[in-house]
Amino acid sequence: MIRVAAISIISVVLVACDPADVTQLMTQEKDKAEVKRQLSPEQLARGAVLYKDNCASCHGDEGQGAANWQKRDKDGKFPPPPLNGLGHTWHHPTAALKYTINHGTGKLGGNMPAFRGKLTDQQIDDILVFIQEKWPMPIYEAWYRTDQMARNTSQ
After folding, report:
1. What is the tens place of the pLDDT at every residue in 91-105?
2. How far apart (Å, rounded) are the C-alpha atoms in residues 121 and 56?
3. 2-10+38-153 under CATH 3.60.20.10, yes or no
4. Are 135 and 104 in contact (CB under 8 A)?
5. CA pair distance 59, 65, nearest whole angstrom
6. Is 116 helix (H, G, I), strand (E, B) or coil?
7. Of 147, 133, 142, nearest in space to 46 by CA
């Protein structure tokens, strides 16, 4: 558990994403095993409602985030990042994403509140599936590989 928390915290600290990373992933050759999304329509529907009710007011209806999400605002906090594949969310394994949702980003320089006790683990999973469905396939594939590596090192 401590190892997962440490990995989560380190992952969450990475608040900037180089747009070149996204461009490179979008254009690079597919030389690795194909990754297929297996997203349940029921889970996507639940995630859409939960996202709208809990996330959209800050991250935007389409997960576009704040315009200047990489720069601290007047209060010294980072605005909400995009969740649609254009930000850094896909750099983080599932454990880090769940940690961030549960604990918020206040201690990391953000404004996101903690949802622990407000959302169940299943609801958080539903939201993550909804967000990931928005990612272009090369982004999803990169995230999937990162997530698999994290899972393999935490066992």
Report:
1. 999 999 999 999 999
2. 19
3. no
4. no
5. 4
6. strand
7. 133
